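Shapes recur. One chain:

:::
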Amino acid sequence: MATHAHTRAAHSAARGSEASIETHDAVFTLSEDGTIVESNAGAEGLFGYRRPDEILGRHISFLLPELARVPLLRKGVVNPRLAFLCHCGKRFTAARREGWAFFAELFVNSVEGSRRGPLLVTVRPAGTVRL
């Protein structure tokens, strides 16, 4: 679960990316290779998982399949193409535990000096998808 320090960092990073954290938003801390190392309660609720250990240790593409082939970092900073897509409001497909998908907006930020991971990803629901 997210710590208070992590939550404050999420709020700070989100302000920098023109987002503010809502209680239903999912917030993830990712390692350099995209592995989920920390999540908040919103992440579990939004994606339908009951316990954090069901998603911790998995690649973010487990929840956001479109990120499977996208390098999240380039030369130690957020991939400029990914940052551009997030800034433009591109809707990404997100996968819930029950097997249905929804559209989501992403906010991706670098977290300087974090021991948990260099990336903070906020996921906000933006509509449902029928498969």
About this structure: Helices lie at 4-16, 41-47, 80-87. The chain has three helices and seven strands.
